[in-house]
Amino acid sequence: MASNPNAAPMLFDRALLRARQRRARKLGAADFLLDRVADDMEERLHAVLRDFSSVADVWTPGDILRGPIRARFKTLTHLGLEDSLDEVLPFQPGSLDLVVSALAFQFVNDLPGVLAQIRRALRPDGLLLAAMIGGDTLTELRQCFAAAEAECEGGVSPRVAPFADLRDVGGLLQRAGFALPVTDLDHIVVRYDNAVALMADLRRMGATNILVERRRTPTRRATLLRMAQIYAERFADPDGRIRVTYDVIWLSGWAPHESQPKPLQPGSAKASLEEAVKRGPKV
Fold first, then answer.
1. Regions of the chain with pLDDT less than 50
2. For 48-78, b where at least 16 C-beta lie within 10 A, e where not — what string?
3. Structure pTM?
């Protein structure tokens, strides 16, 4: 059978992602980023002056969004990673008022397709509010691994997933047919004692390498040690602790409705996501 030339490239092994997330829970998940996003999402939704009856949480790890947020909604369906490894969402067209997702879309192979499915599942005036890892996340680790591998092994292998930037995500929302699409960026810098502590935290986040094209042999000890040394040389503060960048991209879009103002021309929006959510369509 001929392959589909329009199919999205398979960058991520989502079955492996599920296994890594299970391992993270057994190790004791590192949830500080997810906690921050959940608090921010609750605040952003609190600013929306309308009721949502049918709500879906798409692929957020664990059940963190089903606590304080759930009390506000009549129904909240949590779609786990195991429910749709093939990225096909089980929602009927026009069946939802709100879709939320926290720190999951960065591991989607066909993000345009998933956004289009969410758009179809929303009723007119329905809202998508999501947060995903993107931008310059782990740029320091990427640079240090590349330098260490080039020095110790004479080549570089893919280790850190490619991340979308703010402009890309905004364009995808428009392409999927969302009205009033808005994105913004939460730039977070976290400090660790050393690169070994960072790698341990990534395992406890379930966020280690799941690239389909990842190297299948263990990393040489000499390469790991050199990576940690380069990290300490390039990205350490005066107290010796290293800096790590995590960029969280927030994205928001409404299913079109006749009551909404006409969208601005691409590239002309200047409002923040919080402002856009606050003045979202009223019912």
1. 1-3, 5, 282-283
2. beeebebbbbbbbbbebbbeebeeebeebbb
3. 0.84
Q: How open is the CA angle 89-94-97, to the nearest 5 degrees?
A: 90
Nearest to 135 by CA among 210, 170, 59, 187: 187
Neighbours of 137 (CB within 10 A): 24
Cα separation, 183 vs 159, in Å, equals: 27
Closest CA to 184 of 200, 170, 198: 170
List the domain boundaries for the chain. Answer: 14-137+162-189+245-278
- CB 266 within 8 Å of CB 174: yes
Q: Where are the beta strands (DSSP E) in 103-241?
A: 122-134, 179-192
Q: Kindly report the CATH number that applies to the domain delimited by 14-137+162-189+245-278.
A: 3.40.50.150
**Which residues, other chains included, contact 33 with Cβ-Cβ below 8 Å and sequence gap of 6+?**
103, 188, 205, 246, 248
Q: How many CB atoms sit inside 10 A of residue 222's CB? A: 12
- pLDDT reported for residue 162: 75
